[in-house]
C-alpha cells in the first residue's frame, strides 16, 4: 500500500538494471564527446528560453546553474530579452523573496534544519518569480490552471475527466499513447536533483548534481521525493516524515500532481481538451477490471507478478524504487531504470476492493479533518478517503479502506509509497480519489479555516508550500472545486450533490402535491360548511330519501 503505517518499514527492492546509455559512447574521442555535450546543453537551454513554459515543480533547468544555486535566486527572463525578468516588462510578475509557512507543525518529525524540505524551498532558492493576476510559471510565462489567453484573463472551458471504461476508442488510444510517449520523452523544462542540498554543487562546487528524465519518470520522481526519508548519514534514515500522505495535504498534493501531468500530456499530444480518465475502484470485487491488455496490462501467466508481454506496459522500467540503497549511500534517486513494473492483484483470494457504500459513508463526513490531523484522526473526511479511518470513527490502524485499499489490492510496485507512481494505474486511481474530494468540496463548501493553519504534520499546514513543487504553491491554493481549476468529472457518485438535489426535488414535489391536495380538501369542506349554515342541510347528490326509519322494511 502506498502509505506507511509506521516510522520504520521494510522496503522491497527490485533488481537494479545497468544505467541507461550505450556502452560504445565511452569509445568516442573526448573532443567529440565535449562538443556533443555542449550542443546538447545549448539546445536544451534554447528550448527552455524559447518554448512556452510548462508546469511548476522542482526544478527549472534554467535555474540549475552554479550562479543561480549560489545566489539562491530562480528568476529567469521570459523570452529572449535578458531584462524581461519574470515577464516584468509585460507586467506579468517580479522577482521577490519566497514566502514560507512559519507556523509550528506536529507529528513524528521533530528534527530542525536537517531535512532540505523544511520551510520549502528555502534550502535551494529564497527568491523566485511572483506572478500577478492569473499569470503563472517559473518565469510567469504561463497561466494558472483554469485560465487561458495572452493575458490569462479568459476562463478556460473545463476539460472533462471520464471513467476509463467509457472512453471512446479514439480517446482511449490517445490516453495510452500519451502515457507511452511521456515515458520516453525528456521533460523540456525541468530536471531532477540527484544529491541533497548540501552536495548539490558536487565535490568541486562547480558541477550541479542534476539529471534529465522523461516526463512520466519526472511525475514518479516528484512523488518519491515527497515521501523519501530524511538522510541523516549512511544507513541512518529518519522515516517518520511524509509530505503527501498521512495529513490534510494528501488531497491537495495529489490534485496538483495530477494537474501537472495532465497539462504536460495536453502539450505533448497538442490537445488542450485532453483529460485524464479515472478508475472507479469502488466495485467491491476481488478482480481488477482495468488489468487487461486493452487497458493497463493483464498478468503474465508465466510470472503473474509481471505484466503480460502483449501489453505496452510490460516494457516499462520503474525508477526510484531502491530506497534502502539511497539511504545507505546518502543520495537521491537519479532516474535510472531499476527493473520491470510489477503488479499482482489477489485473484482468487478473499481481498476485495472498496465498495460503493464506503464512498457513500466517506462523503457523509462533514468535517474535513480533525486533530491531530494525522493517520489516527477520527471522523475525518480526509483520513477516511485516504483509507486509514472508517467513516464511523472507529479507528483501526491495520484496517485499509478506499485509496489505501486500492493500492494494497494492486500489490507489487503500487504497494510501495516511494515507487507507487511507476504503475500507470496510479493516475486513474488518484483521479477517482480526487473526484470524491471534489464532490465533498461541492457538497459542503468548506471555509478556509476548515484546514488547520498550524500543528498538522510537517508539510500539511494550510499555507505550507507543497514539496517539491516549484515555484512555490500552497495547500490553500488547491483547496477549491475542480471546476475552478479548469476540469470537471463525468461521474455519478453515491449520495452525490446532484443525487441529493434530485431526491430533494422528488420529495419536494411529493410533499407539495400532498399539501395542495390537502388544501383543496379543506377548502371544499369550508365551502360545504358555509353553504349548510346559509341554506340548511342539502345533500351532495340530488336524491330522495324514504320516510321509513332505519330499522323498518322499505
Model description:
With 554 residues, the protein is mainly alpha-helical. The protein has eleven helices and 15 strands. The protein has helices at residues 30-50, 66-71, 169-184, 215-227, 249-269, 323-329, 356-363, 381-386, 402-410, 425-444, 497-535, and strands at 73-74, 93-97, 127-131, 135-136, 142-143, 147-148, 154-155, 159-161, 192-193, 210-211, 230-231, 237-238, 299-300, 303-307, 487-489. The strands form seven sheets. Strands 1-3-2 form a three-stranded mixed sheet. Strand 4 (135-136) and strand 5 (142-143) form a beta hairpin. Helix 5 packs across helix 10. The radius of gyration is 30 Å and the shape is globular. The N and C termini lie far apart (89 Å).
Mean pLDDT: 83
Strand content: 5-15%
Output the number of helix runs: 11
Based on secondary structure, the structural category is mainly alpha
Shape: globular
Largest sheet: 3 strands, mixed
Alpha carbon gyration radius: 30 Å
- Unreliable residue stretches: 1-57, 392-398, 530-554
Distance between the termini: 89 Å
Assembly category? single chain
Q: Which strand order spans the largest sheet, edge to edge or round the barrel?
A: 1-3-2
DSSP helix fraction: 25-40%
Instruction: State the order of secondary-structure elements, H for helix, E for strand.
Output: HHEEEEEEEEHEEHEEHEEHHHHHEH
SS elements, strand count: 15
Amino acid at each position: 500500500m502506498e502509505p506507511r503505517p509506521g516510522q520504520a518499514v521494510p522496503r522491497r527492492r527490485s533488481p537494479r538494471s545497468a544505467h541507461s546509455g550505450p556502452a560504445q559512447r565511452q569509445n568516442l574521442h573526448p573532443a567529440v564527446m565535449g562538443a556533443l555535450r555542449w550542443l546538447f546543453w545549448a539546445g536544451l537551454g534554447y528550448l527552455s528560453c524559447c518554448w512556452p513554459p510548462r508546469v511548476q515543480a522542482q526544478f527549472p533547468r534554467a535555474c540549475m546553474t552554479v550562479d543561480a544555486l549560489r545566489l539562491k535566486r530562480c528568476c529567469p527572463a521570459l523570452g529572449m530579452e535578458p531584462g524581461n525578468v519574470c515577464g516584468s516588462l509585460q507586467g506579468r510578475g517580479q522577482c521577490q523573496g519566497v514566502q514560507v509557512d512559519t507556523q509550528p507543525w506536529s507529528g513524528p518529525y521533530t528534527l530542525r534544519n536537517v531535512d532540505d524540505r523544511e520551510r520549502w524551498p528555502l534550502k535551494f532558492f529564497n527568491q523566485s518569480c511572483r506572478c500577478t493576476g492569473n499569470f503563472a510559471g517559473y518565469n510567469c510565462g504561463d497561466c494558472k490552471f483554469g485560465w487561458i489567453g495572452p493575458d490569462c484573463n479568459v476562463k478556460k472551458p473545463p476539460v472533462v475527466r471520464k471513467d476509463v471504461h467509457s472512453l471512446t476508442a479514439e480517446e482511449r488510444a490517445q490516453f495510452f499513447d500519451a502515457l507511452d510517449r511521456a515515458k520516453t520523452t525528456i521533460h523540456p523544462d525541468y530536471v531532477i536533483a540527484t544529491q541533497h542540498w548540501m552536495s548539490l554543487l558536487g565535490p568541486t562546487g562547480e558541477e550541479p548534481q542534476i539529471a534529465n528524465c522523461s516526463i512520466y519518470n519526472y511525475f514518479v520522481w516528484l512523488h518519491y521525493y515527497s515521501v523519501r526519508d530524511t538522510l541523516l548519514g549512511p544507513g541512518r534514515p529518519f522515516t517518520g516524515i511524509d509530505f503527501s500522505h498521512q495529513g490534510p495535504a494528501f488531497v491537495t498534493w495529489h490534485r496538483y500532481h495530477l494537474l501537472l501531468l495532465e497539462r504536460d500530456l495536453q502539450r505533448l499530444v497538442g490537445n488542450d481538451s485532453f483529460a485524464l480518465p479515472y478508475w472507479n475502484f469502488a466495485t467491491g470485487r476481488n478482480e481488477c477490471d482495468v488489468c487487461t491488455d486493452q487497458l493497463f496490462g493483464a498478468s503474465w501467466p508465466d510470472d503473474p507478478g509481471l505484466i503480460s508481454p502483449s501489453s505496452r506496459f510490460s516494457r516499462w522500467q520503474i525508477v526510484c524504487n531502491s530506497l534502502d540503497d539511497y539511504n545507505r549511500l546518502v543520495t537521491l534517486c537519479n532516474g535510472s531504470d531499476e527493473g520491470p513494473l510489477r503488479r499482482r492483484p489477489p485473484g482468487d483470494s478473499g481481498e476485495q476492493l472498496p465498495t460503493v457504500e464506503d464512498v457513500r459513508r466517506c462523503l457523509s463526513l462533514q468535517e474535513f479533518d480533525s486533530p491531530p490531523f494525522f493517520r489516527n484522526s477520527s471522523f475525518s473526511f480526509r483520513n477516511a478517503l485516504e483509507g486509514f479511518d472508517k467513516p464511523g470513527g472507529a479507528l483501526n490502524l491495520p484496517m485499509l479502506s478506499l485509496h489505501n485499499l486500492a493500492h494494497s489490492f494492486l500489490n507489487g510496485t503500487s504497494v510501495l509509497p516511494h515507487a507507487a507512481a511507476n504503475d500507470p494505474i496510479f493516475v486513474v486511481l488518484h483521479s477517482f480519489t480526487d473526484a470524491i474530494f471534489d464532490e465533498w468540496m461541492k457538497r459542503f463548501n468548506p471555509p478556509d479555516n476548515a484546514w488547520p493553519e498550524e500543528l498538522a504534520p510537517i508539510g500539511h499546514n494550510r499555507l505550507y508550500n507543497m514539496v517539491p513543487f516549484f515555484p512555490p504553491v500552497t495547500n490553500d491554493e488547491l483547496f477549491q472545486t475542480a471546476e475552478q481549476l479548469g476540469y470537471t468529472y463525468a461521474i455519478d457518485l453515491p449520495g452525490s450533490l446532484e443525487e441529493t438535489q434530485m431526491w430533494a426535488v422528488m420529495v419536494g414535489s411529493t410533499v407539495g402535491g400532498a399539501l395542495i391536495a390537502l388544501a383543496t380538501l379543506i377548502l371544499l369542506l369550508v365551502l360545504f360548511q358555509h353553504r349548510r349554515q346559509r341554506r340548511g342541510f342539502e345533500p351532495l347528490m340530488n336524491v330522495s330519501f324514504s320516510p321509513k326509519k332505519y330499522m323498518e322494511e322499505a
